[in-house]
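Pinned message: reference record for RND transporter
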Amino acid sequence: MLVASSFFVAPLYAVPSVAVNVVEQAPLVQTVALNGTLRGKGDVDLTMGTSGKLAFVAEPGAVVKQGDAVARIEMLPLELEAAEQRIMIRRAEVNLTYQRQELERLKKLAKTSSAAANQVDLVQSQHDLALTDIELAKVKLKQIEDRMARATVVAPFDGIISKRFLLAGSDASRADKLVHFIDINNLEVRFYAPVKYLVYAEVGQKVTLSSGSFDNLQFADARVTAVIPATDSRSQTFEVRAKLLGDKNKGWASGQLVDVDFKIEKTAPSLLVERDALILRKAGVHVVKIQSDNKALQVAVAVGQGQGSKVEVRPLEQGALKQGDKVATRGAERLTSGQEVLVQQ
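Predicted structure (tokens):
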């Protein structure tokens, strides 16, 4: 009796399946979280232009248009000085007229030897002095008129009075601080970054600032207007200034603390792979490259900075990894070089 038997031959091993991702090449952008302070670009302490008793000083919180009065001193003393000086000019002109007539008379007498030469010279000098007296008096009048023009302190731009140093009725001297005037319509953020990032900071690049609590967050974009390459031995930071873009000045205050996202971009492009593609071993870090024949190849890499879900890698062997190559992101932990794989679609 013959017994029929069936034999099933199982494969020696199953081909492992892997998920892959393409190696990208792009400039690496890293966001550095910093703290900054908002300031008006033209914030200034307005000072007295001349001495006198203050008749008016704008109150804190007052919105002042460009060219409008911020402070003013009493004009009567200056007006009296100007009137007195005009009288002095007329008096000097009267004296000059007399000296001119006297000089002409003596010159006629000198022709007939009726007047001594030294007498003519004396009157001539008096005439010249009278002429210079008029010029000096006119200069003095211009100085008084200049003080009168500076008796009213005007706003250099549209802004708001944030602080008042002197009140109306008090005496003030030239250069005394009157008010702190803020340029609320041209806010800029000023922040300090570690000096190691100086080579990445450029005028024109954008930064993002935010402030507020989780239920009332504020965001705004700003463009770098100044990079100040100066630091000290303790802080090792440099100052960056960035102006808020568009009409984003509303809702922000001068002196407000904000969070600044400062993006650092490498000039040379970097190879980027998914973080899941990295395989850490005692001997080092490697990725598994899937070649065109669906065979695995371990490529040793040095790991750089991260960017979101991706990370910068540099192959230890030049040319071993390039843009467009496929690397395994799942199922590659036990793969060896030359092993055949099944790529998941």
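Pinned by admin. Summary line: Confidence is low (pLDDT under 50) at residues 1-10.
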